[in-house]
Automatic annotation (TrEMBL):
Originating species: Paenibacillus aquistagni
GO MF term list: O-acetyltransferase activity
Keyword Transferase: yes
Name listed for the protein in its UniProt record: Surface polysaccharide O-acyltransferase, integral membrane enzyme
GO CC terms: plasma membrane
Length: 366
C-alpha cells in the first residue's frame, strides 16, 4: 500500500478506528434510555434510536480492521504469536474483568462477601463472560486470534475467488439466513430452521475478519463498490425506521436490525469501509501532518478507550430523561458522548505514562 504517512500508519484505517470507538460510546450511552422506556413515539426515544442505529457499524468495522491488519502478518512461530498477540489481549481481559467485578460487587450490589467468596464468583464469571457487558468483545477477538496462525496461511494460499467463495457462503449462512429466520419469526411467531445451512465454518465474526483482509488486499469492481455504498446509505436510514416498526409490533425494543449480523449492519459496515478506503488519496493530501498525528494517537488508544469508557460513563455521564424534548435530548447526549470520549482518552494517556500500568491494563498497547 502507498497510503502510509511518516510513522507508517494508514490514514483511512486510523479514521475508521476513531469513528468506530466514537460509535461504541454512542451505542452504550444511548442503550441506557432505549432499555428504560417503551414509549416509541417520544422524541427522546427517537433521538436515541437514530443515534444507536447509525452507530451499529462499529463492532463489525473493528473486526474488519483487525482482519485487514493481522492477517497480512507473516507468522513463523505459534509461541511468538501467542506471546506478542494473544497474551496482550488476555492480560487486560483479566484485569478489567476484575475492576468491573469489584465495582459491581461492592459498589452496585453493596455486597460484603469475603475475598475468597468474591474470587470464586469472579473466577466463574471470568470463564463464562459475566463480569461486564462490553468485555464480550475481548473473548471474541481472542478466540479469533487463536485461529490466526492457521487462517493467515489459508488466505495467503487461496486465490481471490476462493476467499470470495468463503465470504459469499458466510454472508448466506450468517447474514442472509439470519435475516430470513428473523423475518419469519416476526410474521408468524415461529422459528424457521434449515439444517442444510448449519455450517459452522461459515458462521461467526471470522467472516468480518476475513472480509477486512479481502477488502484491504483486493480491488473490487466499481459496480460492486457503488452497490455496497448505496446499500450502506439506505441501511443508515432504514435501521431506525425498521427498528421502530418491529418494536411497536412487539411492545418492547426489538433489536432485529441492531444485531452485528443484521442485513443493515452488514451493509453499513462494508459501505463505510469502502468509502473511507476510496477516500484515502484525498485524506493524504487534505489532512496535514499534525492532524494525522492526532488521529493516529486516538486510533492507537481506541482499544484502551474501549476498555475504560464504561467506567468513565458511570462517573461522568448524566442520565437522559425518557420524556425529554428533541433538542434537550440531543444536547444532553452530545455532552455525554463528548465528555466520555475526552475523559477516557485523557485517562488512558495518563495511565500509559507508566509502563507497568500500560502492560497490566492495556496489554502493553500504546
Amino acid at each position: 500500500m502507498n497510503s502510509i504517512f511518516k510513522n507508517n500508519r494508514i490514514i483511512y484505517i486510523d479514521l475508521l478506528r476513531v469513528l468506530s470507538i466514537v460509535a461504541v460510546v454512542i451505542l452504550h450511552i444511548t442503550a441506557d434510555l432505549l432499555t428504560r422506556t417503551n414509549d416509541f413515539d417520544s422524541a427522546s426515544w427517537w433521538v436515541n434510536n437514530i443515534l444507536n442505529s447509525i452507530a451499529r457499524f462499529a463492532v463489525p468495522v473493528f473486526f474488519m480492521i483487525s482482519g485487514a491488519m493481522i492477517l497480512r502478518v507473516k507468522i513463523t512461530s505459534y509461541r511468538e504469536f501467542y506471546l506478542k498477540r494473544v497474551l496482550p489481549l488476555v492480560i487486560p481481559l483479566v484485569s478489567w474483568s476484575l475492576i468491573y467485578a469489584l465495582y459491581n460487587q461492592y459498589v452496585v450490589l453493596k455486597s460484603n462477601i469475603g475475598v475468597l467468596e468474591f474470587l470464586k464468583v469472579f473466577g466463574y464469571n471470568l470463564l463464562v463472560d459475566r463480569n461486564y457487558v462490553h468485555l464480550w468483545f475481548l473473548y471474541a477477538i481472542i478466540a479469533i486470534y487463536m485461529t490466526v496462525p492457521l487462517v493467515s496461511k489459508m488466505v495467503k494460499a487461496c486465490e481471490e475467488k476462493d476467499i470470495r467463495y468463503f465470504l459469499i457462503m458466510w454472508f448466506i449462512v450468517s447474514i442472509g439466513y439470519r435475516f430470513v429466520t428473523d423475518t419469519v419469526f416476526q410474521l408468524t411467531g415461529n422459528y424457521f430452521y434449515m439444517p442444510i445451512l448449519n455450517i459452522p465454518f461459515f458462521t461467526g465474526y471470522l467472516g468480518y475478519f476475513v472480509l477486512g483482509y479481502y477488502l484491504y488486499n483486493y480491488e473490487i469492481s466499481l459496480k460492486a463498490r457503488n452497490l455496497f455504498f448505496n446499500l450502506g446509505i439506505i441501511s443508515f436510514f432504514l435501521t431506525p425506521i425498521a427498528t421502530y416498526f418491529v418494536s411497536m409490533q412487539d411492545g418492547v425494543l426489538d433489536e432485529m436490525f441492531y444485531g452485528n449480523y443484521s442485513l443493515t449492519t452488514f451493509f453499513m459496515a462494508i459501505g463505510l469501509f469502502l468509502y473511507f478506503q476510496e477516500k484515502e488519496p484525498h485524506f493524504q493530501s487534505a489532512i496535514n501532518y499534525k492532524v494525522k498525528k492526532m488521529i493516529g494517537s486516538v486510533s492507537k488508544a481506541s482499544f484502551s478507550i474501549y476498555l475504560i469508557h464504561l467506567l468513565v460513563e458511570i462517573i461522568v455521564a448524566q442520565r437522559i430523561s425518557t420524556q425529554g424534548a428533541f433538542w434537550d435530548t440531543s444536547l444532553h447526549l452530545l455532552i455525554n458522548i463528548f465528555a466520555v470520549l475526552i475523559v477516557s482518552y485523557i485517562s488512558v494517556k495518563v495511565l500509559q505514562l507508566s509502563k507497568v500500568m500500560t502492560r497490566i491494563l492495556f496489554g502493553g498497547r500504546g
